TrEMBL record:
CDD domains: ACD_IbpA-B_like. Residues 26-136 form the SHSP domain. It comes from the Bacteria. SUPFAM superfamilies: HSP20-like chaperones. This is HSP20 family molecular chaperone IbpA. Belongs to the small heat shock protein (HSP20) family. Transmembrane segments: none annotated. Keywords: Stress response. InterPro entries: A-crystallin/Hsp20_dom (IPR002068), ACD_IbpA/B (IPR037913), HSP20-like_chaperone (IPR008978). The keyword Endoplasmic reticulum does not apply. Gene3D superfamilies: 2.60.40.790.
Amino acid sequence: MTKLTLGSYPHMLGFEQLERLLERTAKSAEGYPPFNIEQTSDNSYRITLAVAGFSERDLSITVEDRQLMIRGKQADDGGERIFLHRGIAARQFQRSFVLADGVEVGEAVIENGLLHVDLTLSRPDTVVQTINIRKG
């Protein structure tokens, strides 16, 4: 069976970068930390990550090349604490989300062990362009 790619469709021009982005994102999907994505209105979304034990200074949020990157790394406590049982994950993480054109990252709030990142989608105006045909 042949794998279908966006390049397999002759009317889909210039989507090679999108295909690479989708493949990279699919490979980087791991299960920690768990997250939700909810639609809060017709043009807004909220990503919520479970970040128990992380403070706002342990987290960083960046957007680069249409990719939202959320990283978490807790400060080393220097081994001062002795755990008899450690069931709360404290490992560093990196979660990435591919953003469509027109998606803007808004406010980020941490409360009750949950990190909320709000996104808005601005709908671009429809542009119609007429191309003149000249005789060669």
